[in-house]
Amino acid sequence: MHNSLSNTVRLLGAGLRALLVLTLVTGVLYPLLVTSVAQGLFSGKANGSEIKANGEVVGSSLIGQAYNLPLKKGQETPEPDLKWFQGRPQNGLGTNSVNTRYKLILSGATNRAADNKDLIDWVTAAKAAVIKDNSTADHKVRPSEVPADAVTSSGSGLDPDISLQYADLQVHRVAERNGLPVAQVEKLVDEHTEGRTLGFIGEPRVNVLELNVALKDLLAKS
Questions:
Q1: Please, what is the end-to-end C-alpha distance for the chain in angstroms?
Q2: Which DSSP helix (H) or strand (E) runs through 94?
Q3: Which of 90, 78, 80, 84 is nearest to 209 (CA)?
Q4: Are residues 122 and 31 in the same domain?
Q5: Is there a single domain that holds both residue 182 and residue 143?
Q6: Which domain holds residue 108?
Q7: pLDDT by residue (tens digit) across 151-187?
Q8: How far from 106 is each of 25, 67, 93, CA to CA, in Å?
Q9: Are residues 16 and 70 located together in one domain of the fold?
Q10: What's the total number of domains in the chain?
Q11: Are 34 and 93 found together in one domain?
């Protein structure tokens, strides 16, 4: 009986010591080490890849934003503010139907097949809108110039980037709406074009938020 009680106490003591050591290592020391390395070497990414304008955080380079006009009376869907560069469509974003007290936006894809009528109708309407919105008095957009990312949403619905082709397609419209020379807006796009990752992965891309922040700065100086 005495030996059994002693063994139980010894095992409980060993378990408690193991719990305390593991809690210290995995719950305190390891998180501190990882946080210190992340803040020291990748502080921007560790803090959410923030984009700042005039000293204030205006968003993240990882999450796309909408550039729309305020809703008019009776409108359910806002119109795009065409003075700014526009990102990809956001058809993949759902609304919270579980707890309707909170107006949450859910990230995700449309999950429609390529031959789905709804998807075909969305793409057809989006393509017509892109052609109409981006055609100016001296530059008409041809249907063949509309890239896929101009009419389809990404898997998350929150893609922050657009292709260089889509950015170039919007240049004439942005220049006209803001009273800027086309060459000046083209230069702005070129300055904010990121190449392929590691030189061979993916395609050149343009971060819409960073581009619009630069456009706002340019307009302030003009």
A1: 91
A2: strand 94-95
A3: 84
A4: no
A5: yes
A6: 50-221
A7: 999 988 889 999 999 999 999 999 999 999 999 999 9
A8: 36, 18, 5
A9: no
A10: 2
A11: no
Cα atoms in the Cβ-side hemisphere of radius 13 Å centred on 194: 15
> Is the pTM of the predicted complex or chain greater than 0.85?
no
Q: Are residues 64 and 41 in the same domain?
A: no
- Which of these three, 28, 47, 66, is where a domain ends? 47
Q: What is the pLDDT of residues 10-33, one digit of tens each?
A: 889 899 999 999 999 999 999 999
Q: Report the candidate in 32, 30, 132 with the shortest Cα–Cα distance to residue 124.
A: 132
The structure tokens 């408690």 sit at: 16
Collect all residues with Cβ–Cβ distance below 8 Å to 58 and sequence separation of at least 6: 51, 52, 209, 213
Distance CA 104, CA 90 (A): 14
CA dihedral sign, ordered 161, 167, 173, 177? positive
11 and 77 part of one domain = no
